[in-house]
Amino acid sequence: RARLTPQAVDREGIGPAIARAAMAARSRGARVRLVASAERTATGVATSVRPTELAESDLLAGLRGTANALVLKTDLLGEIAICQLGGGLTQTAYALLSDLVTVRRRQPPARRQAAPDRIP
Asked: How far apart are CA 35 and CA 15, in angstroms?
């Protein structure tokens, strides 16, 4: 079970240098988006939030305004995306958490116990 605190997340904000990088990315047909990620490692979970250059064809690059998305990379189903268009911070956080809890609850108990290397 991963126990994370905000202090454990590697963070990089958006500032003037990122604005310049975003303009340069756009000239190459790419986009810069603030991306949060979490990945299980041998020692725990690696987390970060940072501006990331994405190909224009990437789902996250296509988000506009206050749209948000969560992309889960799974063993069996590949990538699963959950998108919210026009959501605020509270609505987005609640919706994503609710979706993750629902996915977890629907997982058979045997599968939960058989996968200790997964984030519960």
From this structure: 15
